[in-house]
């Protein structure tokens, strides 16, 4: 459990709050690149970390991210004219470039001199990996862009979509650190494995708690059976230069040891949980819109082109990615319609009666004591150790920033190439060492995307 004070601290990302300022020390996604497809195209409304902003792409293709309201009298910049190297407010003609500088103030005789004193709030922006990124902190604290390898692979090597959730970022993110929920939430009634149409054996391999035989005397053989957790397993958490990694070791019948490495967290919100094809890596990125909603960026990527069958499954299969209501980022199955739960399917086929894999999680997240979970009511168990550790890592970083200690993580861009994977060895130490060599070392060179800075 958390105290009310700690829960308020970890869930509040408004400007000026400890966690809000911590988030603003990192590069964060704010939109999909496809939302700004054309130069001098249509501006896009963006709300992130409780701030209303406008994103646009100028005549040269540079991305601007500015305040949603003109500094003259608060007119909405969304209706602005995006042309000739800037966004012009249609109320009085004030025009701003991607760096927030006023380049024209035609509605007053003192415009030529006064405009030099006028700026609109703007943030440095990067277009990388199919996403628009922003740094919303102090300019003199801006770190290098993180070395996410998926931002450097070809477009055909990744698939990313976003959708909106109606809850705080933290309770959505915590599901990625919960090792015991998948055997229940994501299972079918006759098989505790996650039903993965791309790689059916994956869930069994990645979850050392699976594989239990169904006890003959279990009180609930169908609803629990071999889902019952009888051991915690052998998992070790380590703090890394960017966050937290978890290494699980399993003794194999041939005497060797398997080590499975998962990046629980790269600060502040980058996780590698998920399922997909056999050669696919995953990332879940949950960016706060405000304290009671978030935008979920769900990524699948590979060092090689994603096979067409796998890509089609992501795009149209309806299991890995939910359908969206047209013209919105809201999922078709959502909190207002109980996620289209099918009670007959729940009775006869799967555990939840909810079709789409992420929506099975989301139904739990959005309804967890409301949009901001009251963690004073929790009763945690030994299997919640990752959740506890991640919370403490974030709280420690936020408190340190209040005391004037800047977070070191954004200044280690190389530590953001980490990914999940497995390795084998004759001993536990050898297997762990091989897993770290495979998963924590970059495969691609560092490329720094152009950053728009005034």
Description:
This protein is α+β, with helices and mostly antiparallel strands and 454 residues long. It has eleven helices and 18 strands. It has a four-stranded antiparallel beta sheet with strand order 5-6-7-8, with no helix packed on it. A four-stranded antiparallel beta sheet has the order 11-17-16-15. Strands 12-13-14-18 form a four-stranded antiparallel beta sheet.
As a whole number of angstroms, the C-alpha radius of gyration is 23 Å
Distance between the termini: 44 Å
**In percent, how helical is the residue content?**
10-25%
What is the arithmetic mean of pLDDT?
92
Q: Given the structure, what is the number of helices?
A: 11
Parts with pLDDT < 50 across at least 5 consecutive residues:
203-211
| DSSP strand tally | 18
Query: Strand order across the biggest sheet?
Result: 5-6-7-8
The major beta sheet can be summarized as: 4 strands, antiparallel
Pattern of helices and strands? HHEEEEEEEEHEEEHHHEEEEEEHHHHEH
How would the global form be characterised?
Answer: globular
Structural class: alpha+beta
How do the strands and helices of this protein lay out in sequence?
Elements lengths: L3 H8 L6 H6 L3 E6 L11 E5 L2 E7 L5 E5 L13 E2 L4 E2 L6 E2 L5 E3 L6 H4 L10 E4 L2 E5 L22 E8 L3 H5 L8 H4 L16 H5 L28 E5 L3 E9 L5 E10 L3 E2 L9 E10 L2 E9 L6 H9 L26 H6 L8 H9 L19 H18 L18 E5 L2 H12 L15
Antiparallel strand pairs: 1-10, 2-3, 3-4, 5-6, 6-7, 7-8, 9-10, 11-17, 12-13, 13-14, 14-18, 15-16, 16-17
